[in-house]
Amino acid sequence: MTVSVVRFGGSNCDRDAVRALEDVGVDAELVWHEDGLPAESSGVVLPGGFSYGDYLRAGAMAAQSPILDDVRERASEGLPVLGVCNGAQIGCEAKLTPGAFTTNASARFQCEHVHVRVENADTPWTAAYDEGDVVTLPIAHGEGRFEITEERYDELVDADRVLLRYCDEDGNVTDAANPNGSRGAVAGILGERETVAVMMPHPERAALPELGLTDGRGVLEAFA
Amino acid sequence: MTAYTATVTVRLKRGVLDPEAETTQRALERLGFELADLRSTDRFEIDLDVADEETAADRAGEMAERLLANPTIHDYDVAVEERE
Lengths: 224, 84
Description:
The complex is a heterodimer.
Chain A: E1 2-7, H1 14-23, E2 28-32, E3 41-46, H2 67-76, E4 81-84, H3 86-93, E5 100-102, E6 110-118, E7 134-141, E8 145-147, H4 150-158, E9 162-167, E10 186-190, E11 196-199, H5 217-220
Parallel strand pairs in A: 1-2, 1-3, 3-4, 4-11
Antiparallel strand pairs in A: 5-8, 6-7, 6-9, 9-10, 10-11
Chain B: E1 2-12, H1 19-30, E2 41-50, H2 53-68, E3 74-82
Antiparallel strand pairs in B: 1-2, 1-3
């Protein structure tokens, strides 16, 4: 029962993810993408960072790595897969999840704490929360604006696949509380199976008690 | 075999916000230029040695589908010319 944290050239939240997972009692190890996914892997984290310098589009290059074929196949069999930040961009580029994460409406890199509202608590990632809970998580991205066609967005809403939305501290979804202009203020979205999720906020940066913010622990507990 | 250059132009679909283009437009306006709108595109020039123009266009189109463009947010077009 070991979660594979896949390291690409330019990943930089990989060790943070391992440490945070271990802090919530989940065994985790780094896996270099060229080595492929270990058969005994009990879950996958696609960590944050700037894989391949964000060349072409954030996540576009890493999404072509053959390990993503393994991840897609195992994900379709129910293996839990979480993409965070650059991992979320990779997840969308690799078609593990719908839509795309592109340039923030501000055209700036944004590094700040945000509030997100749990939209669907009936998933492994949000089982520790109640629907409507407001949690505080850090973001650090320049390309986090969730984009998708309106029709496809409506389908995702109808299928309850929006996991998290940016909101204010009281849980109101407003333009002012949407840090990057994401459609529907989407901060996290589910794949075809609820065991696959991507999110721009960093739960692993909000997991260690000594750092003060622990709202992200519940997301990582999905791997327990 | 003939030498071709396939030019793939990738642009955001109409209606998709382009913050970089907006920022560029504002910078041009600060310099005193008047303009109605501005769009940015990515252009890839791909040298191919293939049997005919159609093969060149097909191969470049597949490159766009699979990597150069993201169909969720992009449209693209392909133009093929013989190269010297």
